[in-house]
Hints:
Number of helices: 4
Amino acid sequence: LHSATIEKDSIEIQIENDYSQQVPLRAAVYNLQAFLKAREGNLPGAKKDFENALRIYPDFVLAQRNLQDLMSGGRR
């Protein structure tokens, strides 16, 4: 992605069956990277990326849930 595109674009993320959220694309990318790092066992890297996603968009529900899940010892 071109850096200007990732800075200004947003994407709709499905949170639950009947709820979705519009989030900045860069925050969504950090959330995805974090999820993949967690699956690989890189928990410190995952935590950092979830936190980066939340710095960009503090109301990002999926990143909040993913970070909470990571911190409680669970992985999806």
